[in-house]
Specification:
The complex is a heterodimer of chains A (about 240) and B (about 450). Chain A has about 240 residues and is of the alpha/beta class. Chain A has helices at about 5-15, 35-40, 65-75, 95-100, 115-125, 140-155; strands spanning about 30, 45-50, 50-55, 80-85, 90, 105-110, 130-135, 160-165, 175-185, 185-195, 205. In chain A, strand 7, helix 6 (about 140-155) and strand 8 (about 160-165) form a beta-alpha-beta unit. In chain A, helix 5 (about 115-125) runs parallel beside helix 6 (about 140-155). In chain B, helix 7 (about 140-150) packs across helix 11 (about 195-205) and helix 12 (about 235-255) packs antiparallel against helix 13 (about 290-300). The longest helix of chain B has 22 residues, at about 235-255. Chain B is α+β, with helices and mostly antiparallel strands. Mean pLDDT of chain B is about 85; it is low at about 325-330. In chain B, a hairpin with a 4-residue loop joins strand 9 (about 260-270) and strand 10 (about 275-285). Chain B is elongated and about 110 Å long. The chains are: A alpha/beta (about 240), B alpha+beta (about 450). At the A-B interface, helix 3, strand 5, helix 4, strand 6 and helix 5 of A face helix 14, strand 13, strand 14, strand 15 and strand 16 of B.
C-alpha cells in the first residue's frame, strides 16, 4: 500500500520524528557556528534556533565561549539581541568587543537566584525579543529542563544555549542537541553525544583561537619573570 | 447617549473586589436604616431597595451592610466621566447616578452606535460598574430611557423621569403611569398642577426646548483611589483592584492621546500607614496590560506586613504617545519593543543592578575597562594585549604552584591619581585545563580572568 511521499515527508519533518542513519536536514533553522567542521555535523548546519542546546564543559576557560562567539558576533551584527543569564563570571566587555560582538546588543542578568534564573530564561525565550540566550544552570532537574526546552520551542526561534558541567552528561535531558567539550591541546574536543539523527562516533577537534602567542614570549616558568611588578608605585 | 448606574452607591464601595468573590455574599448600602441598594445575592434572599434594615436582616441574617458614602459616589461618577472622555470630548455629569455623552460626532470613529455601546458596556464592566445605556435624540431623552430601560419615551414609566415625590404621587392618583399619558394631558393643566419644571423637562426631552449642559472637565493629574472592602494581603487581589485603576488611567490617557512613564501605587494600611510602589518604564505607555505586567513583578518582590485597606494610584508626567503604526517598521521595531518590555519585566522582578547591558570604557585598569550601561557605544580603543572573556570579580589569590606561565608580561600601571592605584604584570597561564589571565602585584599572584 503506497503512502503518499509528500504526506510522509510532512510527518518526518515535524519536530519529534527521528530517522536513524542520517541527519534530518531541512526542518531545523540554525545559525552557522562559524566552525566549518562543527557545522557539518550539527543538524541544520549550525546552532539550532528554536530548540534547547546543551553544552557541557569540564571547567570554565577551556574555550567554551570561543566555540559560540562567531555565531553570536554574526547575530549581533544583524542587530540580534543576546542575553547572558546567570554567567559564572562577568562577561568581559573588552574581550567580547575584541571577538567582534556589538556590545549594545548584549544584556547580562547576573547572579539571580536559581528560581529567578529559570523564570528569567522562560521570559526571555517566550518574549521572542532575543536572537540568542546563553545560560548557566549548574543544577537543573529534568522537569525544569523540559520547561526550558518547551519555552525555546515556543519562542521566536532563538538560539538557546545551556551551559552545564560535564557530569550532567550522565543525566537524561529533553534537549535535542547535547555537546560535551574537553580541552585537547590547543584545540577543543567536541563530542556530540545527542542530536537528531545518527550519533557521532568520534569527537570533533575544533581549532579555537587561543591568545597564547599574542603577547609574545616563550613558555615561562613562574620564577623566571622577575619584572618590576613589586616595585612601589609613584604615589 | 446616557449612562445610568442604579447600583452606583454599592459599586463605588465594592468594585475593589473581584465580582466572583462578591457574587455569593449579600451586600447592601444603607441610608436612614433602610436599604438603598443591594446586590443580586441579597435580592435573591428577598431584600429589596426600600425595605427597612431590620426586615432585611430578618430575611438575610448574613447581609453585610455599608453606610452610604456620597463622596465615594461622586468620586466614582467622576472616575467614569474621566474614563469616558476617550470616547468624546463632550461629557457631562448627571448626578447622582448618570453620565451623559454627546456621541454624534464620534459614531463613525467607533463604528456605529451598537459597537460603541458594546465597547462602553465592556469597558464599564472592567472598571467594576454595571451601567444601563441608552441613546436618544436629546440628552434628557437618553437619560430617561437609560433610567427607565424602555424603547420609546411614550412607554416609559412615569417614575423614570424623576419628578418630585409629591408630584409622582399626584400623577399616579390621576392615573398617569407612562410618559405617553403625561404628554396627552393639557399643557396648561400640567403647569398649574406640577409647576414649570416638569413641562420644561418634557420639552427638553422632546427637543422642543434647548438644554444647555455644562461639560465635564477632566482633571489635569491622574489620581484615583479604591477602597478594599475586606482588607487584603495577597498580591493577586491588590493587582485586581489596581487593574481597575489602571483601566481608569488608560481612559484618562487615551482622551489626551498621551502616555506616562510611570505611576505610584500606594497601599493604605490600618493606622494610616502606607506602602508605596513606584513603577516606571523607559518609554511612555498607556496600555493597561503592560502596566499590569510590570506591577505584578513589583508586587511579587515585596511582602506586605499588614493588610491593605485601600489603594491609590497617581500618575504625573504625561508624555505624548505617537499613534502606533504597526507594520511600518516591520519586525525590527516590534522586536525592539518586545525587548524593552522584557528588560523592564526582568528589572522589575530582579532589580535594576542585576539586569544590565555592557560597554567598554577607556581605562587601563581592567576591572574598570567596562561599564554596566546598555545601549552605549563605549570606546573603540582596543587594549594593547589580549583580554579574557570572563573577568573574575574580585580577583582570586593564587598559590605559586597553581599555574604555569605561558606568555607575558603586560605591564599595567595606573590609577595613582584616585588612590586606587594598581601596578601589575599580567600573564597568560595554564591553570589545569583552563587558560587563565593572571597578574602579579605586590601582594602576590592573582587570577583575574579566563580565556573561555
Amino acid at each position: 500500500m503506497a503512502v503518499p511521499t509528500a504526506a510522509l515527508e510532512a510527518v518526518l519533518h515535524r519536530h519529534p520524528v527521528w530517522r536513524g542513519g542520517r541527519m534530518v536536514q531541512s526542518p531545523v533553522r540554525a545559525e552557522p557556528s562559524g566552525h566549518a567542521g562543527l557545522d557539518r555535523e550539527l543538524p541544520g548546519g549550525g546552532w539550532p534556533a528554536g530548540a534547547l542546546t546543551e553544552i557541557l564543559c569540564a571547567s570554565h576557560g577551556i574555550g567554551e565561549l570561543q566555540l559560540v562567539l562567531p555565531a553570536l558576533a554574526a547575530l549581533s551584527r544583524r542587530d540580534g539581541r543576546i542575553a547572558w543569564l546567570a554567567p559564572p563570571h562577568l562577561p568581559y566587555a573588552p574581550g567580547l568587543a575584541a571577538a567582534g560582538l556589538r556590545l549594545e546588543f548584549l544584556t547580562v542578568v547576573r547572579a539571580p537566584g536559581r528560581r529567578d534564573a529559570l523564570w528569567a530564561a522562560e521570559q526571555v525565550l517566550r518574549a521572542g525579543a532575543c536572537r540568542a540566550l546563553l545560560m548557566w544552570l549548574p543544577r537543573a532537574g529534568y522537569g525544569e529542563l523540559r520547561r526550558l526546552a518547551l519555552a525555546a520551542e515556543a519562542g521566536a526561534a532563538a538560539v538557546a544555549l545551556l551551559f552545564r558541567p560535564l557530569q550532567a552528561a550522565q543525566e537524561s535531558s529533553p534537549a535535542p542537541l547535547r555537546l560535551a567539550l574537553e580541552p585537547d591541546g590547543g584545540q577543543l574536543a567536541v563530542r556530540i553525544f545527542k542530536r537528531r539523527g545518527a550519533q557521532l562516533a568520534v569527537p570533533l577537534r575544533i581549532p579555537i583561537p587561543r591568545p597564547v602567542h599574542a603577547v609574545g614570549g616563550a613558555l615561562l616558568s613562574p620564577a623566571q619573570p622577575r619584572s618590576q611588578a613589586a616595585r612601589p608605585c609613584p604615589a | 447617549m446616557a449612562l445610568c448606574f442604579p447600583r452606583l452607591s454599592l459599586e463605588a464601595r465594592l468594585r475593589g473586589r473581584a465580582p466572583l468573590e462578591v457574587v455569593d455574599e449579600s451586600w447592601a448600602v444603607v441610608e436612614n436604616r433602610s436599604v438603598l441598594v443591594c446586590n443580586g445575592a441579597a435580592e435573591a434572599l428577598g431584600v429589596r431597595p426600600g425595605s427597612a434594615l431590620t426586615a432585611a436582616w430578618a430575611l438575610a441574617p448574613q447581609l453585610r451592610i455599608l453606610p452610604r458614602d456620597a463622596a465615594a459616589e461622586a468620586g466614582a461618577l467622576e472616575a467614569i466621566a474621566t474614563w469616558a472622555c476617550q470616547f468624546t470630548a463632550k461629557v457631562s455629569l448627571e448626578p447622582p447616578q448618570g453620565v451623559l455623552l454627546e456621541v454624534a460626532g464620534s459614531l463613525r470613529l467607533f463604528g456605529g452606535i451598537a459597537r460603541l455601546m458594546a465597547r462602553l458596556r465592556g469597558g464599564l464592566a472592567d472598571l467594576g460598574f454595571e451601567g444601563q445605556l441608552a441613546a436618544g435624540p436629546t440628552p434628557r431623552a437618553a437619560l430617561w430611557l437609560a433610567r427607565g430601560g424602555g424603547e420609546t419615551l411614550q412607554a416609559l414609566p412615569i417614575g423614570a423621569i424623576g419628578p418630585e415625590p409629591e408630584a409622582l404621587a399626584l400623577l399616579r392618583r390621576i392615573g398617569v403611569r407612562t410618559l405617553g399619558e403625561l404628554m396627552q394631558l393639557p399643557r396648561a393643566g400640567i403647569t398649574a398642577r406640577f409647576g414649570q419644571g416638569l413641562l420644561r423637562d418634557l420639552d427638553r426631552a422632546l427637543g422642543q426646548a434647548p438644554e444647555p449642559r455644562v461639560f465635564f472637565v477632566p482633571p489635569e493629574r491622574f489620581k484615583a483611589q479604591l477602597e478594599l472592602p475586606a482588607p487584603v494581603m495577597e498580591a493577586d487581589r491588590v493587582l485586581f483592584a489596581a487593574r481597575r485603576l489602571l483601566l481608569q488611567l488608560e481612559g484618562f490617557l487615551a482622551a489626551r492621546q498621551a502616555g506616562v512613564r510611570g505611576f505610584t501605587l500606594s497601599l493604605t494600611h490600618r493606622h494610616k500607614r502606607s506602602t508605596v510602589i513606584d513603577v516606571g518604564s523607559a518609554t511612555p505607555h498607556r496600555d493597561t496590560e503592560h502596566w499590569q505586567r510590570l506591577l505584578r513583578e513589583h508586587l511579587g518582590a515585596i511582602v506586605l506586613k499588614s493588610p491593605a485597606e485601600a489603594i491609590g494610584l497617581e500618575a504625573a508626567g504625561l508624555a505624548p504617545l505617537a499613534g502606533a503604526a504597526p507594520g511600518l517598521f516591520g519586525d525590527a521595531r516590534s522586536e525592539a519593543e518586545a525587548w524593552e518590555r522584557l528588560t523592564e519585566r526582568l528589572q522589575a522582578r530582579l532589580g535594576g543592578a542585576v539586569v544590565h547591558g555592557l560597554a567598554t570604557h577607556a581605562e587601563h585598569r581592567p576591572e574598570r575597562a567596562w561599564r554596566a550601561a546598555g545601549g552605549v557605544a563605549g570606546t573603540d580603543e582596543m587594549p594593547p594585549g589580549p583580554r579574557p572573556l570572563w573577568l573574575l570579580e574580585p580577583p582570586r589569590r593564587l598559590g605559586e604552584g597553581e599555574f604555569v606561565l605561558l606568555a607575558g608580561p603586560e605591564r599595567i600601571e595606573s590609577g595613582w591619581w584616585d588612590g586606587d592605584d594598581v601596578a601589575r604584570d599580567y600573564f597568560i597561564a595554564a591553570r589545569g585545563a583552563s587558560l587563565a589571565w593572571i597578574y602579579r602585584a605586590r601582594e602576590g599572584w592573582f587570577l583575574h580572568g579566563l580565556f573561555a
